[in-house]
Amino acid sequence: xxxxxxxxxxxxxxxxTSNQNPGTPRAWCQAAxxxxxxxxxxxxxxxxxxxxxxxxxxxxxxxxxxLETCGCKELCxxxxxxxxxxxxxxxxxxxxxxxxxxxxAFLQEVMDILLSYIVNTFxxxxxxxxxxxxxxxxxxxxxxxxxxxxxxxxxxxNCRSTMKYAIKTGHPRYFxxxxxxxxxxxxxxxxxxxxxxTNMFTYEIAPVFVLMEYVTLxxxxxxxxxxxxxxxxxxSPGGAISNMYAMLVARYxxxxxxxxxxxxxxxxxxxxxxxxxxxSIKKGAAALGIGTDSVILVKVDERGKMxxxxxxxxxxxxKQKGYVPFFVSATAGTTVYGAFDPLIAIAxxxxxxxxxxxxxxxxxxxxxxxxxHRWKLNGVERANSVTWNPHKMMSVPLxxxxxxxxxxGLMQNCNQMHACYLFQQDKHYDLSYDTGDKAxxxxxxxxxxxxxxxxxxxxxxxxxxxxxxxxxxxxxxxxKIKNREGYEMVFNEKPQHTNVCFWYLPPSLRYVEDKEERLxxxxxxxxxxxxxxxxxxxxxxxxQPQGDKVNFFRMVISNPAAAFEDIxxxxxxxxxxxxxx
Amino acid sequence: xxxxxxxxxxxxxxxxTSNQNPGTPRAWCQAAxxxxxxxxxxxxxxxxxxxxxxxxxxxxxxxxxxLETCGCKELCxxxxxxxxxxxxxxxxxxxxxxxxxxxxAFLQEVMDILLSYIVNTFxxxxxxxxxxxxxxxxxxxxxxxxxxxxxxxxxxxNCRSTMKYAIKTGHPRYFxxxxxxxxxxxxxxxxxxxxxxTNMFTYEIAPVFVLMEYVTLxxxxxxxxxxxxxxxxxxSPGGAISNMYAMLVARYxxxxxxxxxxxxxxxxxxxxxxxxxxxSIKKGAAALGIGTDSVILVKVDERGKMxxxxxxxxxxxxKQKGYVPFFVSATAGTTVYGAFDPLIAIAxxxxxxxxxxxxxxxxxxxxxxxxxHRWKLNGVERANSVTWNPHKMMSVPLxxxxxxxxxxGLMQNCNQMHACYLFQQDKHYDLSYDTGDKAxxxxxxxxxxxxxxxxxxxxxxxxxxxxxxxxxxxxxxxxKIKNREGYEMVFNEKPQHTNVCFWYLPPSLRYVEDKEERLxxxxxxxxxxxxxxxxxxxxxxxxQPQGDKVNFFRMVISNPAAAFEDIxxxxxxxxxxxxxx
Lengths: 581, 581
Known about the structure:
By secondary structure, chain A is α/β, with parallel strands linked by helices. Chain A is built from 19 helices and 12 strands.
């Protein structure tokens, strides 16, 4: 039943992979040796089966070694798992009668693949990415979905191949996105969430998770600074949706009739956000029938912070045109510059003009956990709503985004439709815990457990420590390159968040006098270096243009695994890959 | 560091749990015995550590047995794991240097908890739910998030307690929602997805998953019947959002200027859907600024199917009022009755009046996998868009919902905002795989891998078999109760989907002549039986009123673990719990 073309690309390149991740099974056994008790044998036993076995066989072929001589000194009498997955199918697993043995062996095998991946993730000698172009991957592998089933052996092979080509987003040298890192407690929590496989809409089917969301949202509101943590909120599928919720609730607060009558019943609404704000504000406006033209972009200063006087000027202008300003979205931690808009001054403007103040703290919200850095969000307590994504700066597994709303009950009134098949009013428990009707979604994924469990495991001080460390690393980077030859900062002064924006100028560009020529060539530097980074697989960092500034690197650090040596590595790598340009 | 109040409720009730799940460690060892090779010892070794150990100690205290005498005959020389989690913290795990041993032991411990839960899930002698009222759970446990960290021992305890109070949504007697079941390959895939911890927005950071989504969406469009599977689509966070996408794209198709200008630039739009359709259509209309008043509810027949002539009448009426009909949402599998709207006749009306035809097949879409049942969706190939949730009838873990769109490029044009920091145009690979800009979300959870891997593992015929079986069970239930004393069907004729809607009349109600009195009392029967079901924890099935019909049971079957005996059990249980009412 195994397809001959199956992940053939993977097979062809297996040798390379092994070279990239030298001695994975050996590394395991070395790890196993550190156990003083029987866990060593246990891990060796795991190694002797499935993933370990195949990896070991491969290693043996290539390195002339076998698992038995890997150096593990523990007595290991557990014999090999002789379950033959090549004759088993998913129908042999639970709920099949007698499916429990095969199920446990299969899941353990998958677990071994994942454990191996995890160990590799944190091993700096492994690649961040084993990059292939879309057509290569598409042509080389059998992606096809067919009528006939594949064996569990094939399924395990799929899992291995998928992990082979996955980006190691937890790798200490992966700096590509605002969400990086792989937290072990968060991961365990996400596995548990998958296993519980339930839905957040009612207490009836998610009692524990619903209560955890209740407790955690309250705690987050306390950290924002709302009295007694009162208010409302929800975990939503990402910051863009959280921001859209905020806009939706703000509109409803001002014109509740919009729910029934639509936008035709209300005057022309306008929203305000900075030039550097996240594109989700415009996306939300388009979706909600407000229109992107009604999102007015407020000027920012050299550091990327909204200029409050420009905000006020534009609000007044809009009023003069007969428009109704209903929503200001200030950003706490912009995507590119990491700028924090001046929230107090913005709150003053919002108060004066009676406009809903939203703070998009998707990226910067995490700094509320840090006594050293939370001043950057001073004024957030005056907001009417706040987006805060624990999956970004707090390294909670994707996705985990919260929208917090100061006024209780608004979300419910705005979104509820009273579906009687779900939110029966004659249930036997307190219905206030059936929170589903305040959501835009019907079914809602359980995103809370990983955050709650990580918070338990770290305490607030643990989050604080990891956030402070990321900011320290970013300051280290800034100090290292600000006066270094070949670097130019996109803006001066120490970064407020972990974003460090800079150009790297290859030697050939450093003395080009013609400004046009210089910019033209400079704009191509970052894309080429990035391409090479991905092809070598050594590190990943993002670049983009912004306004009239040509392509520059935006370094961000949110991964607790990153260390000073990784910052050093990044600089060396940029220079290695870019010096000939 | 361990809190004395920590999950004290759990501790107090541990005895009960054990009685509910008799001999979990023994069950494990029995399972282990079935392995002919060393896997037996391996599983015993797992049992000898962590979860197994604690469970075994508990069992020993209560049953006078120890693990060593559990009956497992395999030689088991792996000694116990002597890692002491009570002195370890999350900071001792990776990426801590030397954190690999503790990490592997910790994750294996979590895995053991999950494996134990999984085995219990399919064990009919365990409870579906260990129900407690919100205040009981809130008061009895320590939910608080504090400054200080807890030990890994506490974290593991949290995991155990969370699983103790979780609803077993994969239990063969859990019939409460449209999404039930726990698929082992799907679960493994979800664990892998968590471990890969990436984001769908670009090929750059999710190459494999992006390609899998591409392949799978194409396959789904082929099954819908669109030529060569051409078109577009996306996996979204649930059916409600998928339906909202459809409405958004339909509006954009008719009035592309709405994106910039908002609803004030377009005439009054109206949407049509049946009285029995899902509430997300209204929710979407409210959010998109269309307004719920502009969702016109079309009459249904006795079976809950939309009446096409009423649809046409209302479209004509709306046009006469100067409104612009832009969207018809037909339902393939209504939430309560499981009705399939007559798609061909609806397509004719839509074509005639040039209105976008959407099919909400969130629940019924799965029947496209069945040669025996797919005729119920005849005409779906004429739709402009289709919602299809593999997390419902196909038992893919939550969440997995697809929106399929017939016209390619519309979604992109409708939603794109060209965020330059994410969708750089000078990347080195084919940018058509950066699909993030067609989404409403920015970050997007990877929902594809579980579906893709399950499809690989089952083949289309495997999905077909499990869907056919669920429909067979539902027909069995229908035949069993349609003429049984004490039952009344909410509608006659064999159900089209697995929804079986019925009233149970306790003996005292069967001969009540007064119609008002009868209805008044009947409306209270289902809620009381449901309460008792949850308190006993034996089974769960949903109830609701609909229109002028008082509370009735809506039985649905989507769980491949369910068998004839479970249907028999449900009937017995309803009668046992309801006969005194």
